[in-house]
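Purpose: get a first structural picture of the assembly so the mutagenesis plan has something to point at.
Setup: two entries, given in the order below. No constraints added.
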Amino acid sequence: MKQLLYSQRLAPYLFIAPFVITLVVFWMIPVGQSVVMSTQEVLYGETTPVGFRNYERLWQDRLFWQALFNSARYMVLTLAILIPIPMVLAALVCNSIGSPRIKNFFKASLFVPALTSVVVAGIVFRLMFAETGTGLMNQIISVIGLGPVRWLREDVPGLIALLALATWRYTGVNTMYFIAGIQSIPGELYEAASIDGASRRQQFFRITIPNLRPTLVYVTTISIYGGLAMFLESFMLYAGNGSPNNQGLTVIGYLYRRGIEENDLGFASAVGVVLLVVILAINLTQLTLSGTFRKEADR
Amino acid sequence: MARHRMWTSLAAVALSAGLVAACGGPGGGDQPTGGPNEDGVTTLSVWVFAELHGAFYEQMAESWNEENPDRQIELDITVYPYQDMHNKLQLALNSGEGLPDLVDIEVNKFSNFVRGDNPPLVDLTEAAQPYIDDVVQARLDLYSRDGKIYGYPTHVGAMVAFYNATLLEEAGVDYTTIRTWDDFEEAGVQYHEATGKEFGIASTEVFFTEPLTIAQLGGNIFDESGNVSVDNPEVTEAMEMWQGMLEAGAISTIPGGSPDSEEGYGAINNGDYAAVVYPAWYTSRFVDYMPDLEGDIAIAPAPVVEGSDVLTIGGGGTGMSIPKGSPNEELAADWLAYAKLSPEANVAVWEVLGFDPVNMAVWEDEAVTHNPDNKFNQYFQTNVFDVLNEVKDGISHFEGFAHPDLPAVNNTFTTVTLTEIYENGRSVPDALAQAQSDLQTELGQ
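Result (structure tokens, whole complex):
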């Protein structure tokens, strides 16, 4: 017994056991059950196997493709906004802005939105983007002479509102990641560069960005997942899962509508499985291309 | 030291084993073991999604205890947010664990819980017998499947018309002459041309008024075998009538997508719209959210289609049900019938909740209905019960509202179809054909 417990070969497995067990129990088993459920019709304690019928219906459903398009569009746009802007902000916070007190104030105020509940933020944004002339956003754009916009009732303005909410909320989080990344870059690199006569701008593009690669890969990965799995922001902004012409419907919103609102849990499981496959495919491609899977020595 | 390390690794094993055990054990439910406690009081757990409903049930439990000293009950009421409560109930029913004794179910969600051949709710037909003659049958039908009642209604929610009489008078329109939808359209055009403001409302996000006209035309959104049928002649005629009114200027879309939204209340309160055709429970929205209109609003019967027997239908509602497996089924059912269907209860429905009660005996009790201290009676120019008594024999049940696939149809209409017809000016047959084919794919029909 004693020998077993002190065995060199067994120890690593013992140490990772808590993680592996939670992964299996809370993740692998539910995923497996979802895959099984996706081939069934589920109704109050009764399940009827239906083969691949749920997937067939999913493939033919116009709404699914629309939801996938909406999610993909949102994901791409959040990547385009929520990576460059926080990176520049992080560089500014680390280098350019005066006293540490101002820096800390700046950091804290950037991060506050992330601490706000999406539910509260969603309601506030919904009222800000009200379509009446008295709504805050309509008042603001009227200053530059634009007429009232029916924000949440038209496709592009609705998307702008959604992106505004996402930008407001997640800029701070991403900025923190980049600040952490920038702070781990050795100061000697910048020192050497400035002795060689490199400008601030050159330093940013030649030193900061290349050295931020691990952070970039990480932020991109979670942003892809976060973008495709977005649900709550749209749900709160449109005060529910329904939006004009489904312009705010995301894949998770679609899953929720079919599974919970229309009580078709088998079909919803199929949606979940497809989403899992899509996200895995995108993330694995991205991680392979960015070289994350290569061994340290090969890089 | 060695001993210490061994304990550490043992602790790690114990911790992970504990994690596994935590989710393998029986789920702790709210359902009590049943039967009365030593004081002879039975505790019934209740889930509701509206706090006001909870207050009403407490009141009904008190008066039940006074009348039934040998069958005392105590309610353990939990108020959840609307969406949460229905989700929780659905998961509890699917897993068969953690169920309450009684639960409020909103009508749009109700279909989900009576799907399949073996609904997970208790058959309440028998407990309703003492009151059934006085209760609006259409409302029981809404919560019934195959002749069995699975839930008791809270209110009728009869569709009526609310007119801003002050504004209409200024524009020279007499709302009392509006009887049919043609009259409604004519009055709307006249008002719109005289004032430049909007008259009626085309809701893109709530599907209530269109079903009223479909029902008046004798149509349905499902065919006889229960398959979805939203492009049939009656639905087409009804939707064309609505689009026609929109094009003529008699109705217009509203900020927020329906009268029942924050932006909608604001617009109506502002006098931007002069006519709202909505269920009778909308009275409470006027009183609570549109204080500026006190004394301006008159309630009248909803417009009709010429020659139709159907004068109005009920819209919206909440039914209370008993999930199967409750150990207190019988007591819960008896109390529920008392709390929802008895005349005493229905007086409270009006006085506490301000809803049009389902027990019609109350409608004729002038002491209750015309009580001058009642805040609803004070707010409106006309009395809602006068209107209800006028349409009493024409309150019909719109079968589509009780169909298991209603949530799917409702989702399609309130997200796509109504927007296409009212906002994007798409032709009605086109928009309906699209809805029909989307729904058929979705439902696998």
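The CA atoms of residues 168 and 174 of chain B lie 7 Å apart.
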